[in-house]
Amino acid sequence: xxxxxxxxxxxxxxxxxxxxxxxxxxxxxxxxxxxxxxxxxxxxxxxxxxxxxxxxxxxxxxxxxxxxxxxxxxxxxxxxxxxxxxxxxxxxxxxxxxxxxxxxxxxxxxxxxxxxxxxxxxxxxxxxxxxxxxxxxxxxxxxxxxxxxxxxxxxxxxxxxxxxxxxxxxxxxxxxxxxxxxxxxxxxxxxxxxxxxxxxxxxxxxxxxxxxxxxxxxxxxxxxxxxxxxxxxxxxxxxxxxxxxxxxxxxxxxxxxxxxxxxxxxxxxxxxxxxxxxxxx
Length: 281
Ligand code: NAD
Prior knowledge:
Elements: E1 3-4, H1 7-27, E2 33-39, H2 43-59, E3 62-68, H3 74-86, E4 92-95, H4 105-111, H5 123-131, H6 139-150, E5 159-163, H7 170-179, E6 183-187, H8 194-198, E7 203-206, E8 224-227, E9 231-232, E10 238-239, H9 244-247, E11 253-254, H10 262-280
Parallel strand pairs: 1-11, 2-3, 2-4, 5-6, 5-7, 7-8, 8-11
Antiparallel strand pairs: 9-10
Bound molecules: nicotinamide-adenine-dinucleotide.
Nicotinamide-adenine-dinucleotide (NAD) binds near residues 170, 207 and 241.
Protein backbone atom coordinates (compact mmCIF):
# COMPACT_ATOMS: atom_id res chain seq x y z
CA UNK A 1 0.00 0.00 0.00
CA UNK A 2 1.25 3.45 -0.91
CA UNK A 3 2.06 6.06 1.70
CA UNK A 4 -0.48 8.88 1.63
CA UNK A 5 1.22 12.27 1.45
CA UNK A 6 -0.87 14.36 3.83
CA UNK A 7 -1.04 17.85 2.35
CA UNK A 8 -3.46 19.04 5.01
CA UNK A 9 -1.03 18.22 7.83
CA UNK A 10 2.03 19.60 6.00
CA UNK A 11 0.16 22.80 5.09
CA UNK A 12 -0.88 23.20 8.74
CA UNK A 13 2.77 22.77 9.78
CA UNK A 14 3.89 25.49 7.33
CA UNK A 15 1.12 27.85 8.46
CA UNK A 16 2.15 27.35 12.08
CA UNK A 17 5.76 28.13 11.18
CA UNK A 18 4.57 31.30 9.41
CA UNK A 19 2.49 32.21 12.45
CA UNK A 20 5.53 31.97 14.70
CA UNK A 21 7.64 34.08 12.33
CA UNK A 22 4.90 36.73 12.08
CA UNK A 23 4.55 36.85 15.88
CA UNK A 24 8.32 37.37 16.17
CA UNK A 25 8.24 40.14 13.53
CA UNK A 26 5.35 41.80 15.37
CA UNK A 27 7.33 41.75 18.60
CA UNK A 28 10.04 43.63 16.67
CA UNK A 29 7.49 46.16 15.39
CA UNK A 30 7.19 44.72 11.86
CA UNK A 31 3.73 44.02 10.43
CA UNK A 32 3.10 41.89 7.32
CA UNK A 33 0.32 43.13 5.03
CA UNK A 34 -1.25 41.46 2.00
CA UNK A 35 -3.56 43.35 -0.37
CA UNK A 36 -6.06 41.08 -2.13
CA UNK A 37 -7.91 42.46 -5.15
CA UNK A 38 -11.01 40.79 -6.56
CA UNK A 39 -12.83 42.21 -9.58
CA UNK A 40 -16.43 41.08 -9.99
CA UNK A 41 -18.06 38.33 -7.97
CA UNK A 42 -17.22 35.01 -9.57
CA UNK A 43 -18.38 32.55 -6.85
CA UNK A 44 -15.24 30.36 -6.97
CA UNK A 45 -13.02 33.46 -6.68
CA UNK A 46 -15.07 34.64 -3.68
CA UNK A 47 -14.41 31.28 -1.97
CA UNK A 48 -10.65 31.44 -2.75
CA UNK A 49 -10.38 35.04 -1.55
CA UNK A 50 -12.31 34.13 1.63
CA UNK A 51 -9.90 31.24 2.31
CA UNK A 52 -6.90 33.53 1.83
CA UNK A 53 -8.39 36.06 4.26
CA UNK A 54 -8.96 33.31 6.85
CA UNK A 55 -5.39 32.06 6.48
CA UNK A 56 -4.08 35.63 6.96
CA UNK A 57 -6.16 35.99 10.13
CA UNK A 58 -4.81 32.72 11.54
CA UNK A 59 -1.21 33.64 10.84
CA UNK A 60 -1.47 37.26 11.95
CA UNK A 61 -0.99 38.83 8.51
CA UNK A 62 -3.01 42.02 8.01
CA UNK A 63 -5.15 41.63 4.89
CA UNK A 64 -6.59 44.51 2.90
CA UNK A 65 -9.55 43.48 0.76
CA UNK A 66 -10.34 45.36 -2.45
CA UNK A 67 -13.66 44.08 -3.79
CA UNK A 68 -14.15 45.95 -7.05
CA UNK A 69 -17.26 45.86 -9.24
CA UNK A 70 -17.31 43.82 -12.47
CA UNK A 71 -17.35 47.01 -14.58
CA UNK A 72 -14.03 48.27 -13.13
CA UNK A 73 -11.87 49.41 -16.06
CA UNK A 74 -8.37 48.17 -16.75
CA UNK A 75 -6.95 51.63 -16.08
CA UNK A 76 -8.77 51.89 -12.72
CA UNK A 77 -7.31 48.54 -11.70
CA UNK A 78 -3.83 49.55 -12.89
CA UNK A 79 -4.15 52.78 -10.90
CA UNK A 80 -4.93 50.83 -7.72
CA UNK A 81 -1.92 48.56 -8.33
CA UNK A 82 0.35 51.58 -8.82
CA UNK A 83 -0.93 53.01 -5.53
CA UNK A 84 -0.34 49.70 -3.69
CA UNK A 85 3.11 49.32 -5.30
CA UNK A 86 4.04 52.67 -3.75
CA UNK A 87 2.69 51.97 -0.26
CA UNK A 88 5.43 51.08 2.23
CA UNK A 89 2.90 49.39 4.52
CA UNK A 90 1.87 46.85 1.83
CA UNK A 91 4.18 43.84 1.40
CA UNK A 92 2.21 41.62 -0.95
CA UNK A 93 -0.28 42.28 -3.75
CA UNK A 94 -2.49 39.53 -5.10
CA UNK A 95 -4.97 39.91 -7.94
CA UNK A 96 -7.48 37.04 -7.91
CA UNK A 97 -7.82 35.41 -11.33
CA UNK A 98 -9.70 35.14 -13.61
CA UNK A 99 -10.32 38.82 -14.33
CA UNK A 100 -13.35 39.93 -16.37
CA UNK A 101 -12.81 39.58 -20.13
CA UNK A 102 -12.37 43.32 -20.79
CA UNK A 103 -9.21 43.43 -18.62
CA UNK A 104 -5.84 42.22 -19.95
CA UNK A 105 -4.62 39.80 -17.24
CA UNK A 106 -1.04 39.80 -18.39
CA UNK A 107 -0.84 43.60 -18.33
CA UNK A 108 -2.26 43.64 -14.80
CA UNK A 109 0.08 40.95 -13.44
CA UNK A 110 3.09 42.64 -15.05
CA UNK A 111 2.12 45.91 -13.33
CA UNK A 112 2.58 44.46 -9.84
CA UNK A 113 5.95 45.38 -8.32
CA UNK A 114 7.93 42.12 -8.61
CA UNK A 115 9.03 42.54 -4.95
CA UNK A 116 5.35 42.40 -3.93
CA UNK A 117 4.30 39.66 -6.38
CA UNK A 118 3.53 36.98 -3.77
CA UNK A 119 1.84 34.78 -6.41
CA UNK A 120 5.18 34.51 -8.23
CA UNK A 121 3.65 35.21 -11.66
CA UNK A 122 5.69 38.32 -12.62
CA UNK A 123 8.19 37.73 -15.48
CA UNK A 124 11.00 39.00 -13.24
CA UNK A 125 10.26 36.29 -10.65
CA UNK A 126 9.85 33.62 -13.33
CA UNK A 127 13.22 34.67 -14.77
CA UNK A 128 14.80 34.63 -11.30
CA UNK A 129 13.60 31.05 -10.82
CA UNK A 130 15.06 30.13 -14.21
CA UNK A 131 18.55 31.35 -13.34
CA UNK A 132 18.48 30.41 -9.65
CA UNK A 133 18.21 33.93 -8.15
CA UNK A 134 16.04 34.79 -5.13
CA UNK A 135 12.43 35.72 -5.88
CA UNK A 136 8.86 34.58 -5.38
CA UNK A 137 7.93 31.14 -6.71
CA UNK A 138 4.46 30.16 -7.90
CA UNK A 139 2.68 28.73 -4.84
CA UNK A 140 1.38 25.35 -6.09
CA UNK A 141 4.72 24.01 -7.41
CA UNK A 142 6.57 25.48 -4.41
CA UNK A 143 4.10 23.59 -2.22
CA UNK A 144 4.77 20.34 -4.08
CA UNK A 145 8.51 20.64 -3.36
CA UNK A 146 7.62 21.04 0.33
CA UNK A 147 5.33 17.99 0.19
CA UNK A 148 8.17 15.91 -1.26
CA UNK A 149 10.85 17.19 1.11
CA UNK A 150 8.74 16.95 4.23
CA UNK A 151 7.68 13.41 3.30
CA UNK A 152 11.31 12.34 2.99
CA UNK A 153 11.25 11.91 -0.80
CA UNK A 154 14.73 12.37 -2.27
CA UNK A 155 14.63 14.41 -5.52
CA UNK A 156 18.32 14.60 -6.45
CA UNK A 157 19.23 12.19 -9.24
CA UNK A 158 15.64 10.98 -9.65
CA UNK A 159 13.77 10.75 -12.96
CA UNK A 160 11.05 13.40 -12.61
CA UNK A 161 8.27 13.71 -15.17
CA UNK A 162 5.88 16.65 -15.11
CA UNK A 163 2.74 16.33 -17.25
CA UNK A 164 1.64 19.85 -18.18
CA UNK A 165 3.53 22.99 -19.18
CA UNK A 166 1.34 25.83 -17.88
CA UNK A 167 3.02 28.98 -16.61
CA UNK A 168 1.63 28.59 -13.10
CA UNK A 169 2.14 24.86 -12.51
CA UNK A 170 4.00 22.76 -15.12
CA UNK A 171 6.87 25.05 -16.09
CA UNK A 172 7.78 26.32 -12.59
CA UNK A 173 7.39 22.74 -11.29
CA UNK A 174 9.96 21.51 -13.81
CA UNK A 175 12.37 24.33 -12.89
CA UNK A 176 12.02 23.64 -9.17
CA UNK A 177 12.65 19.91 -9.61
CA UNK A 178 15.71 20.80 -11.69
CA UNK A 179 16.87 23.16 -8.93
CA UNK A 180 16.64 20.15 -6.58
CA UNK A 181 18.86 18.18 -8.99
CA UNK A 182 16.15 15.96 -10.44
CA UNK A 183 16.47 14.74 -14.04
CA UNK A 184 13.41 16.43 -15.46
CA UNK A 185 11.17 15.71 -18.44
CA UNK A 186 8.16 17.87 -19.28
CA UNK A 187 5.34 16.07 -21.11
CA UNK A 188 2.43 17.93 -22.68
CA UNK A 189 -0.48 17.67 -25.08
CA UNK A 190 1.85 17.14 -28.06
CA UNK A 191 4.01 14.47 -26.39
CA UNK A 192 4.16 11.26 -28.42
CA UNK A 193 3.55 8.06 -26.47
CA UNK A 194 2.90 9.72 -23.10
CA UNK A 195 2.81 6.38 -21.27
CA UNK A 196 6.33 5.52 -22.39
CA UNK A 197 7.54 8.87 -20.96
CA UNK A 198 5.60 8.76 -17.68
CA UNK A 199 6.59 5.14 -16.98
CA UNK A 200 10.21 6.33 -16.62
CA UNK A 201 9.29 8.56 -13.68
CA UNK A 202 10.46 7.98 -10.12
CA UNK A 203 8.50 11.15 -9.32
CA UNK A 204 5.45 11.83 -11.48
CA UNK A 205 3.61 15.16 -11.25
CA UNK A 206 0.26 15.25 -13.04
CA UNK A 207 -0.90 18.80 -13.85
CA UNK A 208 -2.85 17.95 -16.95
CA UNK A 209 -6.35 19.22 -16.09
CA UNK A 210 -8.13 16.00 -17.16
CA UNK A 211 -10.07 14.05 -14.51
CA UNK A 212 -8.58 10.62 -13.66
CA UNK A 213 -6.59 10.52 -16.92
CA UNK A 214 -3.47 9.05 -15.31
CA UNK A 215 -4.29 5.39 -14.75
CA UNK A 216 -1.98 2.62 -13.50
CA UNK A 217 -0.59 1.96 -16.99
CA UNK A 218 1.09 5.43 -16.95
CA UNK A 219 2.93 4.73 -13.70
CA UNK A 220 6.10 2.79 -12.86
CA UNK A 221 5.83 0.47 -9.89
CA UNK A 222 7.13 2.22 -6.75
CA UNK A 223 6.89 5.75 -8.19
CA UNK A 224 5.90 8.80 -6.10
CA UNK A 225 2.78 10.34 -7.65
CA UNK A 226 1.73 13.95 -7.13
CA UNK A 227 -1.76 14.86 -8.32
CA UNK A 228 -2.30 18.57 -8.98
CA UNK A 229 -5.70 18.29 -10.66
CA UNK A 230 -8.94 19.38 -9.02
CA UNK A 231 -12.22 18.33 -10.62
CA UNK A 232 -15.74 17.36 -9.64
CA UNK A 233 -16.70 13.86 -10.77
CA UNK A 234 -20.13 12.70 -11.92
CA UNK A 235 -21.25 12.43 -8.24
CA UNK A 236 -20.05 15.98 -7.53
CA UNK A 237 -17.14 14.61 -5.47
CA UNK A 238 -13.62 16.03 -5.81
CA UNK A 239 -11.12 14.03 -7.84
CA UNK A 240 -7.74 14.66 -9.44
CA UNK A 241 -5.90 14.08 -12.71
CA UNK A 242 -4.83 10.68 -11.34
CA UNK A 243 -7.11 7.67 -11.14
CA UNK A 244 -6.38 7.11 -7.44
CA UNK A 245 -8.03 3.68 -7.19
CA UNK A 246 -5.87 2.09 -9.91
CA UNK A 247 -2.61 3.99 -9.20
CA UNK A 248 -2.47 3.81 -5.39
CA UNK A 249 -1.78 0.04 -5.21
CA UNK A 250 1.31 0.26 -7.44
CA UNK A 251 3.03 3.47 -6.32
CA UNK A 252 5.13 4.04 -3.19
CA UNK A 253 3.53 7.36 -2.21
CA UNK A 254 0.68 9.47 -3.53
CA UNK A 255 -1.17 12.70 -2.79
CA UNK A 256 -4.94 12.33 -2.34
CA UNK A 257 -7.52 14.73 -3.78
CA UNK A 258 -8.75 16.47 -1.70
CA UNK A 259 -6.12 16.87 1.02
CA UNK A 260 -2.95 16.62 -1.06
CA UNK A 261 -1.62 19.48 -3.19
CA UNK A 262 -4.69 21.74 -2.69
CA UNK A 263 -4.02 22.92 0.88
CA UNK A 264 -0.36 23.65 0.04
CA UNK A 265 -1.15 26.53 -2.33
CA UNK A 266 -2.48 28.86 0.37
CA UNK A 267 0.19 27.75 2.84
CA UNK A 268 2.90 28.73 0.34
CA UNK A 269 1.13 32.02 -0.40
CA UNK A 270 1.35 32.79 3.32
CA UNK A 271 4.99 31.76 3.29
CA UNK A 272 5.67 34.09 0.35
CA UNK A 273 3.99 36.96 2.28
CA UNK A 274 6.25 36.32 5.26
CA UNK A 275 9.33 36.16 3.03
CA UNK A 276 8.33 39.34 1.20
CA UNK A 277 9.41 41.42 4.20
CA UNK A 278 13.02 40.21 3.98
CA UNK A 279 13.01 40.47 0.18
CA UNK A 280 11.86 44.10 0.37
CA UNK A 281 14.46 45.01 2.98
P1 NAD B 1 -3.64 24.09 -17.94
O1 NAD B 1 -4.91 23.69 -18.61
O2 NAD B 1 -3.15 25.48 -18.07
O3 NAD B 1 -2.47 23.13 -18.43
C1 NAD B 1 -2.65 21.77 -18.68
C2 NAD B 1 -1.42 21.21 -19.34
O4 NAD B 1 -1.63 19.84 -19.59
C3 NAD B 1 -1.08 21.87 -20.66
O5 NAD B 1 0.23 22.38 -20.59
C4 NAD B 1 -1.19 20.77 -21.71
O6 NAD B 1 -0.11 20.77 -22.62
C5 NAD B 1 -1.17 19.51 -20.89
N1 NAD B 1 -2.07 18.52 -21.46
C6 NAD B 1 -3.37 18.66 -21.77
N2 NAD B 1 -3.86 17.51 -22.31
C7 NAD B 1 -2.86 16.63 -22.30
C8 NAD B 1 -2.74 15.28 -22.70
N3 NAD B 1 -3.76 14.61 -23.19
N4 NAD B 1 -1.53 14.68 -22.55
C9 NAD B 1 -0.48 15.33 -22.03
N5 NAD B 1 -0.54 16.62 -21.61
C10 NAD B 1 -1.71 17.25 -21.76
O7 NAD B 1 -3.82 23.68 -16.42
P2 NAD B 1 -3.03 24.14 -15.09
O8 NAD B 1 -3.44 25.52 -14.73
O9 NAD B 1 -1.59 23.81 -15.20
O10 NAD B 1 -3.71 23.15 -14.04
C11 NAD B 1 -3.63 21.74 -14.16
C12 NAD B 1 -4.58 21.10 -13.17
O11 NAD B 1 -4.19 21.46 -11.86
C13 NAD B 1 -6.04 21.54 -13.29
O12 NAD B 1 -6.86 20.45 -12.96
C14 NAD B 1 -6.18 22.63 -12.25
O13 NAD B 1 -7.50 22.74 -11.76
C15 NAD B 1 -5.25 22.11 -11.18
N6 NAD B 1 -4.66 23.15 -10.31
C16 NAD B 1 -4.66 22.89 -8.99
C17 NAD B 1 -4.07 23.78 -8.10
C18 NAD B 1 -4.07 23.46 -6.65
O14 NAD B 1 -3.92 24.34 -5.83
N7 NAD B 1 -4.20 22.19 -6.29
C19 NAD B 1 -3.50 24.95 -8.58
C20 NAD B 1 -3.47 25.18 -9.96
C21 NAD B 1 -4.05 24.25 -10.81
